[in-house]
Design brief:
heterodimer, A: alpha+beta, Multidrug efflux transporter AcrB transmembrane fold, Alpha-Beta Plaits, 2 domains, four-stranded antiparallel β-sheet, 11% strand, disordered C terminus, B: alpha+beta, Hypothetical Protein, Haloacid Dehalogenase-like Hydrolase, Chain: A, domain 2, five-stranded mixed β-barrel, 24% strand, SecD/SecF_bac (chain A), transmembrane (chain A), SecD_SecF_C (chain A), transmembrane helix (chain A), SecD_SecF_C_bact (chain A)
Chain lengths: 313, 609
Amino acid sequence: MELFRIKKDIPFMSYGRLTTSISLVTFILAVFFLLHRGLHYGVDFTGGTVMEVHYPTTANIQKIREVLDGTGLKDITVQNFGSSQDVLIRLPVKKDMSIAQLSEKISGALKASDSGAEVRRVESVGSQVGEELYENGALALLLVCSGIMAYLAMRFEWRFAVAAIIANMHDVIIILGFFAFFQWEFNLTVLAAILAVLGYSVNESVVVFDRVRENFKKMRKASAVHVIDNAITRTMSRTIITHLMTQTMVCSMLFFGGETLHNFSLALTIGILFGIYSSVLVACPIAMWLGVSRANLIGDAEKKPKDEATLAP
Amino acid sequence: MNRYPLWKYVLIGTVFIIGLLYTIPNFFGESPAVQISPAKTSLKVDQGLLQKVEDALKLADIPVDGMFLDPNGVKVRLASTDIQLLAKDKLVSALGKDYTVALNLVPQTPNWLQSIGAKPMYLGLDLRGGVHFLLQVDMKAALDKAAESTVGDFRMSLRKEKINYYGIERQGQVVVVKFESEAEATKARNLLAKNFSDLTYKISGSDKDFNLTASMSVMAQKRIQEFALKQNLQTLHNRINELGVAEPIVQQQGLDRIVVQLPGVQDTAKAKEILGRTATLEIRMVDEEKSDMATLQKAQAGQVPFGDELYFDREGRPVLVKKSVVLTGDRITDAGPGVNGQNGSSVVNVTLDGRGAGIFKNVTRENVGKRMAILLIEKNSTEVVTAPVINEEIGGGRVQISGMANAQEATDISLLLRAGALAAPMEIIEERTVGPSMGEENIKRGVHSTLWGFAAIAVMMIIYYMVFGGVSVMALGVNLLLLVAILSMLQATLTLPGLAAIALALGMAIDANVLINERIREELRNGNTPQASIHAGYDRAFDTILDSNVTTLIAGLALFMFGTGPIKGFAVVHVLGILTSMFSAVLVSRAIVNLLYGYRRKIEKLRIG
């Protein structure tokens, strides 16, 4: 079976203006939602307590609320989680009470009112731990970006490195934008997913760039636009099949992975979908506008005079 | 051209077999067991303990499936959880409180596999259930405490040298001594600087009001903090031993934090209480007048003389101790094992702070020839650590406790003296509890995601690329096998995000095979022969595969460096997955294709869809 047998090169670069404007609009929207709504951070970041409680029969949310109100603690939210028998209880960090006491108090109150209540998971994080996570998360992001840029600059050329990083940062912002728009919980595993996507979708750009470089060697007469169009067309089949496979795995996690992996897989899904788009239709036009050419890619080994290397888009 | 030299096949075969061997233990499951480990560091884990356990179980008529020694203690494999509980009860009563008996699970890995070190993967708390605590050591309190004891030390020294001062106080972590004349202040500085050299001194003020301020140097502060952390770690170790947890983890994290992980523990309230407990040390006099056999026996029967209390030492001998306390443990600043210069016997060197040294000097002067008991007091038990005889008046705050049986005992007792109490208060700043049913569910979720995802990819690959798709799936299978094998070998902690990383690694690893297969198709389309197409396909795709894997690797390493807990688990698997995928996608799949096509003289058509 072969789904993508494309005879002629698709003139992707002539859509450059269109595709980058689409990106720009989604990017601006994502930034807008990020600033306007902000991310809904999980306890990992904000500090606080989350408890998952399982009841043998359908949980009576109203009654649980009353019981918890009786403890005198404020700002407790109670909601169903997964099934009608599971309840998720959240509460913020309290100044006058250690997190250890807090979780004991809640589980004590719940067990006193219903002996069948089973506390299946407790996550309590002090505020100081959360603050460090911001820092470490930002540092990790920075390190990934600079590491990837350095590698691409070394293996290819700085123009490619810049183009790839812009394309991929655009993915990251869009994932964050989705999380802000839908107010999905942003926790540590989501951060891991985003960094993994960053590494993964750079692959995409690498594959195309690799082909661009190869084409520059083979298609000596062709213009940069032609070379890039050909590279994208030739790798398109691989791009779609690979992403289909990875997405299959991610869907499997989405269906079977339960609540813990749910947002993780969501972040990956968005990352993969936008990754295809951006690494091809954002990275390539940017690389082209930055003036990527045969000479600066293949270098002096080809003994090309410098002035021949100015190929306008 | 599509033939590998023999050594490459041999290499791949060997790696495959090793991978298989180390993956197998994961399929055997675990059986209930009890783990017996010494509660005190002075007790040895040896054949003697094994024999003791065996005898106790034989006596109670408990069938045993297997028994073995490991560095932590004796593990006894049992047939069912009922027998496990029974065995635990019998062993607790037979061995007493010198040993902790904990319920545990041991892998049912066959012996021949165990002998090559093959073990199942090490599951994290989110997969096996348990409690995780992150404790923050209050370093400011530790420094305050150190400064507080410096105040006492100063007072003692100044009084001894008859230097006049009219005030001494601690301001934060700085000690300020007030003098009426500069001459006195200078005299004091010279004296104190000689005795307490790790402080920096400064004189300020004028007229009749001179201040001598002493502040801790950065080095001294660091030393105090390190000491506090070490002592807290040791104390936690000792306490957790009592909990009877099978494989507890107590580790330093960063400069001022301690991670405690208690697998299988459900009673978090008890765990928290034990972690937060404060143990104290007390030094009291032994009531020598009433320490004859008759009184001791009466005391043991319940008639304790007035003003005394009955305790037992570590050998179980009764000791009558006076109720009045001579010194408490917070006067001890350090304790370490040493050797007596005169007879070469093992001793414990204890250093007391200024105030403690003064009291100690007076008490020892008045009680030469009598015994002094050192008691370790915890919530509901008090033990006489040692009760040495006072040979002479002891001044200067340096006390040598003789009467140690050997160097090991000296080390243990100094640890106890140091570690009985916490050096600085701690606060739980992170708590994660996962119930056992949740753990099992998490394993199921992770495994199902991986397997169903794998199956779906396999079907799609075979439909789309036919024979070459099949080869890719085999390579992907080898990838999974190697990844699990390496994780089992390294005994890296596997968490739910780690399981997700396995799934993701497979989903990403297929990229390499897709690249290769697409390339072969393209070469065929360009009119190359099948053999040449295979060759060129693998050759050309390799550069791309390398580049794309390096970028993914960079992301993985960054996650590893900055991630904590579950994220670190994700990163480890992610990075290992990239490495194994390089091997399987390129070498293994090529080897299979070579075996399939490389030795045919003539190929009409490649079945690549």
